[in-house]
Design a protein that fits this description.
Length: about 200
């Protein structure tokens, strides 16, 4: 059986509390294993249910948004990165799925951390949980209620011991539906016991 080796960590930027939690998880993994951390940001916010329209921007709008977005991103994350320099920033100009798919194919990351802002969150016009569950690469959603609330898709669950999350009782992503707050089974890290929420 082939085991995926992690050479780079991906993170989708989001300016929220959950975004900071997901960023810290991604940075902790990258720093702990001296991996490249690739921070992806988007011309139009893929979490915005009504406003995701990167493909419809005029050239001047696109250029202005690119400059503003890059400046905001650097100012926001530079301080949190501290002295960690093994970092790349990537602007996703197209639909979020297309760009991230290209990055997966180019092996720009082997695990992707995404913030989970709320239980109804969408990404590129699709429920976030469905988006993450369908990814072929390992993906982790962080949030929405606590920084130690982490959901892993099937490929990430397989690699959970490589993700340095011993402090987390992660839950599996259930493809095809949003996760309900009080009706889920917790799959613990192998060192922990199995718990059921009712």
């Amino acid at each position: 059986m082939t085991v995926t080796s992690i050479h780079a960590v991906g993170f989708c930027a989001h300016y929220s509390e959950q975004g900071e939690w997901a960023f810290r998880r991604a940075l902790e993994l990258a720093r702990g294993r001296n991996l490249q951390l690739n921070i992806f940001h988007f011309l139009c916010d893929p979490w915005d249910k009504d406003g995701f329209m990167a493909d419809r921007l005029q050239d001047e709008q696109r250029r202005r948004k690119m400059i503003e977005g890059e400046k905001k991103l650097r100012l926001y994350y530079d301080e949190m990165l501290g002295d960690y320099l093994n970092v790349g920033f990537r602007l996703c100009e197209d639909n979020g799925w297309k760009e991230l798919h290209r990055c997966i194919c180019n092996r720009e990351f082997q695990v992707l951390f995404l913030p989970y802002p709320d239980r109804e969150a969408e990404f590129a016009g699709r429920p976030l949980t469905e988006f993450a569950a369908a990814l072929a690469c390992p993906a982790a959603l962080v949030g929405p209620a606590r920084p130690d609330e982490v959901y892993l898709n099937a490929p990430a669950a397989f690699l959970s011991e490589q993700l340095q999350m011993d402090d987390v009782r992660w839950l599996p992503l259930d493809a095809g539906r949003r996760i309900r707050e009080n009706a889920c089974t917790v799959v613990a890290h192998p060192a922990h016991e199995r718990l059921d929420y009712q």
